[in-house]
Write a structure and sequence with these properties.
The protein is an alpha/beta fold. It contains ten helices and 25 strands. It is 25% helix and 24% strand. Strand 8, helix 5 and strand 9 form a beta-alpha-beta unit. The structure holds alpha-L-arabinofuranose (AHR). The site of alpha-L-arabinofuranose has 10 residues, from loops. Alpha-L-arabinofuranose binds next to loops.
Length: 497
């Protein structure tokens, strides 16, 4: 069982936009309340933010956090979340059938993001609201002073503008579950008009138009084309969302899902370029994969949540080892598209389908998916290389020719580092990797990190971390060739410098 790979410094996909290592915090379940914010927790700082959570977010080096939703944003009045906390209304959140207390709002979240060294990707409500609320929020956040909303921000104690650069024009507006669901034409029109005036308030912002909620939406492709037809000149990005699950317990097929993700990305690029051609435009629209992850473990338990409760444990997927492998494959897939994929948000960050979990009044802990995400975010900075791979293949229920080796590499010229990310999808056997890195003379293997486990269904918990990486991989470099044994079903990070 052998796979070969060739890496050349000059076989470049593109410089990686660090925003592909973004994540997402929605007002949903225990993401905000009990996740990032728990004022009575012993680890809480003077603002009520859990410092143990902040530390873990910093470990992940998340450069961008999408906020405040998600489905939540389509019913959200941003004005409810600013000003004195005592005067903020409690509202029914129709998206998740809970009660929103509004203790945390825009300013508090901006403060939290600063503590984690992240920028915010702010979403505006194009469900129940529209261009007026959107342009007012841009004015509130980004205008220095001397206007109603900028002065309101200052009166709330935030003299400096937040300077939010990246904005989402609503969320999943193609979905019938969305508050204020729209047809592609309805959404395209409102998104274009909102975009226009938001940029009139602050021309430096970048905007993401909503693409489809997932690849199997009946309106997929037609939706993107219509929305971009309306918005092309006003936006920089079109979004993609996708979650996977292993409901039928078919691991070989599950781990191949990243091929579907690859196809989804290619399709959206084609659609964006079709509209470019149609408009004879010089402008290129890039992709924002602003929701992606595994999500299915919590579907049944979520049906038992008491309606209208405050911050109940919703979408608390406990990820197992095989989920971490698929997350690794998805990250590698995104690296392969670094030329057009410039933003991606792991959905989500804390407690809600998240790499970080918290116990009420207790510990914060790392899920299995924490590790591939952290490794890629920390070591995957620089230029994504285009590897030439020859790998044994397999067929599964929905896929043919699935390469057993899923791999990509990142060259950090500044630090003179080369990092190979690799998943061995083989269920039965290890894979011997031979990687020709001909023009990286003088490089040495710094470490070979491996995430492996005999039990595909193994999860972590607050008490124990049985799924954690070790650095006992055997990668070696000799005569221009890196050789490494990739254990069966494993995530590998081979670092050279
Ligand atoms: O991330 C959870 C939910 O998934 C988001 O609120 C929504 O946009 C998507 O359907």
């Amino acid at each position: 069982n052998k796979a070969k790979m060739i890496l050349e410094k000059d076989f470049k996909v593109a410089e990686i936009d660090k925003r592909i290592y973004g994540s997402f915090v929605e007002h949903l379940g225990r993401a905000v309340y009990g996740g990032i914010y728990e004022p009575n927790h012993p680890e809480a700082d003077e603002n009520g933010f859990r410092q143990d959570v902040i530390e873990m977010v910093k470990e992940l080096q998340v450069p961008l956090v999408r906020y405040p939703g998600g489905n939540f944003v389509s019913g959200y009045n941003w004005e409810d979340g600013v000003g004195p906390v005592a005067g903020r209304p409690r509202r029914l959140d129709l998206a998740w059938r809970t009660t929103e207390t509004n203790e945390i709002g825009t300013n508090e979240f901006m403060q939290w993001a600063k503590l984690t060294n992240s920028e915010v990707n702010m979403a505006v409500n194009l469900g129940t609201r529209g261009i007026d609320a959107a342009r007012n929020l841009v004015e509130y956040c980004n205008h220095p002073s001397g206007s109603f909303y900028s002065d309101l921000r200052i009166s709330h104690g935030y003299k400096e503008p937040h300077k939010i650069k990246t904005w989402c024009l609503g969320n999943e507006m193609d979905g019938p579950w969305q508050i204020g669901h729209k047809t592609a034409d309805e959404y395209g029109r409102i998104a274009a008009e909102a975009a226009k005036v938001m940029k009139w308030v602050d021309p430096s912002i970048e905007l993401v138009a909503c693409g489809s909620s997932h690849r199997n939406m009946p309106t997929f492709a037609e939706w993107e084309a219509t929305v971009l037809d309306h918005t092309y000149d006003h936006v920089e990005f079109i979004s993609l969302h996708q979650y996977y699950g292993n409901r039928d317990n078919d691991v070989a097929n599950y781990l191949a899902r990243s091929l579907e993700m690859d196809d989804f990305i290619r399709s959206v690029i084609s659609i964006a370029d079709y509209i470019k051609a149609k408009k004879r435009s010089k402008k290129k629209i890039n992709l924002a994969f602003d929701e992606w992850n595994v999500w299915y473990h919590s579907h049944e338990s979520d049906k038992l949540i008491e309606p209208w409760s405050v911050a109940p444990p919703q979408l608390e997927d406990h990820y197992n080892f095989e989920d971490a492998l698929l997350v690794g494959c998805m990250l590698i897939t995104m690296l392969k598209h670094a030329d057009r994929l410039k933003i991606a948000c792991l959905a989500q960050l804390v407690n809600v389908i998240a790499p970080i979990m918290t116990e009420e009044n207790g510990k914060a802990w790392k899920q299995t998916i924490f590790y591939p995400f952290m490794h890629t975010s920390v070591f995957g900075r620089g230029v994504a290389l285009n590897p030439i791979i020859s790998s044994p293949k397999y067929d599964s229920k929905d896929f043919t020719d699935v390469p057993k080796l899923e791999s990509s590499a990142v060259y950090n010229e500044e630090n003179e580092e080369l990092t190979i990310f690799a998943v061995n999808r083989d269920l039965e056997a290890g894979l011997l990797l031979e990687c020709d890195i001909r023009n990286f003379e003088g490089y040495k293997v710094v470490e070979h990190i491996v995430l492996e486990n005999d039990d595909l269904k193994q999860t972590n918990s607050a008490q124990a971390t049985p799924v954690a990486p070790h650095t006992n991989g055997d990668a070696a470099f000799d005569n221009g060739i890196v050789t490494a044994f990739l254990p069966k079903l494993s995530w590998n990070v081979i670092r050279l410098a």
